[in-house]
Specification:
2 domains; binds phosphoenolpyruvate; alpha/beta; TIM Barrel; 9-stranded parallel sheet; binds manganese (II) ion; single chain
């Protein structure tokens, strides 16, 4: 059998049932060895455990729990191998057309929910750039709950966003929802956004994994931290190392906020993974009055950036107007973010 790369050699522990017979123990050892792995027996007074060393990929289709006499199977390492800190102890730094994210560099992603018109995009870009944003956002393909709601301007929207970003010296990020459109979106954008609704669209993740574009992977609204890291693994396993995670809130029971902002996910992800993670207090709270404080909490908790929706006339916005910050308020929030960033030893790259 081919030797696995060192980071994929995963130890497992099989805990045998207390009454496991000698015959069962021998069968477990034989079964493990027949899979090309090494079994290390450790006999206690009441329990025997079997350490299994080898390439865990061999075990994916093997239900070790089903071997007679096995009580529990414990995986010693995380299933998200490439995303894990074990495989990569240093924090990753992702470069989005010259803007660094991670390792002390903060991304300040701002812009409207959707690209609406060239004029509107221009005035918002000018304002967020002046306030210190370093990446411009805007959706051209919008995931809307209603099929009758504004769906985005498609390729025309991509052109407007590209042009606006270029004129203001801002790299751009925009969402792709359809694997068949990855090629088109990649032609225009500096960073691909995978939205919350598509975090587990594995076909889409595989497609963006085949590109070399940085990816902003948003946490699904019912996804655990482990689910998020497994989705990142899909992209990484295709050879694209440029993944930035995004905490954007999960479904909660309280309608006081649009979602439940899980700020603890930031240090929780950092403990498990080397990938940068930014926060999105706009979608997490859905409330302009909460975006500022939640942005500060995110940076204080170790986030590598903040993603905020900004609109110069929220009442006319074609999507997410109710949560958009006015440019003046965004500038104030940015002042405060700078102070928190300084306190935690980070800086906003430009
Ligand atoms: C968005 O960024 O506009 C968006 C739709 O976000 P999410 O996927 O987090 O809901
Ligand atoms: Mn939005």
């Amino acid at each position: 059998m081919r030797d696995p790369p060192p980071h994929l050699a995963t130890p497992m522990i099989l805990v045998l049932q207390s009454g496991a017979s000698e015959e069962q123990i021998q069968h477990v050892v034989e079964r493990v060895e027949s899979l090309g792995m090494t079994a290390h027996l450790s006999r206690g007074t009441y329990r025997t455990i079997v350490g299994v060393i080898g390439d865990e990929r061999q075990l994916q289709e093997t239900p070790l729990e089903a071997i007679p006499g096995v009580a529990r199977v414990i995986s010693v390492m995380d299933p998200y191998k490439l995303a894990s800190r074990e495989s990569h102890p240093q924090p990753s730094v992702v470069d989005v057309a010259g803007v660094k994210i991670g390792g002390g560099h903060l991304a300040m992603i701002a812009g409207p929910c959707a690209v609406e018109s060239a004029e509107r995009m221009d005035s918002i870009a000018k304002a967020v750039k002046a306030a210190g944003a370093n990446i411009l956002r805007g959706g051209a393909f919008k995931p809307r709950t209603s099929p009758y709601a504004f769906q985005g301007h498609g390729e025309d929207g991509l052109k407007i966003l590209r042009d606006t970003g270029d004129r203001h010296g801002l790299p751009i990020v925009t969402e792709v929802m359809d694997p068949r459109r990855v090629e088109l979106v990649v032609k225009y954008t500096d960073m691909i956004q995978i939205g919350a609704r598509n975090m587990q669209n594995f076909v889409l993740l595989t497609e963006v994994g085949k590109t070399n574009k940085p990816v902003l992977l948003k946490r699904g609204m019912s996804a655990t931290v482990k689910d998020l890291l497994m989705s990142a693994e899909y992209i990484l396993s295709q050879g694209n190392p440029n993944v930035v995670l995004c905490e954007r809130g999960v479904k909660g029971f309280d309608s006081a906020t649009r979602n439940l902002y899980d700020v603890a996910a930031v240090p929780a992800v950092k403990a498990l993974s080397h990938l940068p993670i930014v926060v999105d207090p706009s979608h997490a709270t859905g409330r302009p009055d909460l975006i500022g404080p939640c942005a500060l909490a995110g940076v204080a908790a170790g986030a590598d950036g903040v993603h905020i929706e900004v609109h110069d006339c929220p009442e006319q916005a074609l999507s997410d107007g109710e949560q958009a910050l006015l440019p003046e308020r965004y500038a104030e929030v940015m002042q405060q973010i700078r102070r928190v960033a300084e306190a935690v030893g980070k800086s906003i790259s430009n």
